Amino acid sequence: MCRLFALTGAPRRTRATFWLLDAPDSLDEQSHRNPDGTGLGFFGGDGRPELFRQPIAAWEDRRFAAEAREARATTFVAHVRHASTGAVTARNTHPFLQAGRLFAHNGVVEGLDALDEHLGDARSLVAGDTDSERLFALVTREIEAAGGDVAAGITAAVRWVATHLPVYSINMVLITADDLWALRYPETNELHLLERPAGGQHGARPLHHADAAGATRVHAADLAGSPAVVVASEPMDEHPGWRPLASGELVHVAAGCAVTSTRVLADPPAHLLTLADLRPTAAASQRQTDRT
């Protein structure tokens, strides 16, 4: 299953060292589980987005590893891809950049011809073949229509998708230099949030996370003295503060790590897909990783 990870400590910059698929004792296993691309996006000191994407497992790309190890930024988003729609290429690798925002998605949306028609001129924002980048283009268009209100744009986009298209999951994370938004919908795939005080549960400790599959690892020594908010596909340590987002819950984390939450979708999708409904490649991309 694709993995989502996002972190914000805005307005403070955090030096976070990322390892993506970098578990020396299980490289072969991990490359079979999430083989199709690895990406890291963040906003550095100048407030500009930086984006590194490769259509291969990260452990195969030493340049990517070097870039990911020393990133220092206010907000981060990372993604490990198991392809469901679109070829294994750099342009189909998450995160995606549009209108100065970075976006990553875990799930499957079908009915792409209808989505393309609905996008109209906004289809030009899409460089690749994925349902994810098309979904982002719809979000971008609706943000513009809402006068720059990101929450309103996300809400309008996902409500249209939930009403008109077959949906398996549209879990997403969107970041700017100062803000983070995360949505879980529907209950199909998990998405978790941690409001982490400075030093973590026990105080004076860096953030050091690894998910159960070993697909995403992050170490941020700066957070021994600074608060942060983390969003991930699953809890990444034993901290008791992890909580699952509810289906349809949109979370906004503003500068200063102020968290607000709104239920923007109360009902399941009008055309809810199951694994049995998906093409074999899409179904394989969405199966839960064994946590044992």
From TrEMBL:
Glutamine amidotransferase type-2 domain ranges (all copies): 2-256
Family matches, as Gene3D superfamilies: Glutamine Phosphoribosylpyrophosphate, subunit 1, domain 1
Any matching Pfam family: GATase_4
Listed PROSITE patterns: GATASE_TYPE_2
Family annotation (InterPro entries): EgtC-like, GATase_2_dom, Ntn_hydrolases_N
Keywords (A to Z) from UniProt: Glutamine amidotransferase, Transferase
GO molecular function, one term: transferase activity
Protein name per the record: Putative Glutamine amidotransferase
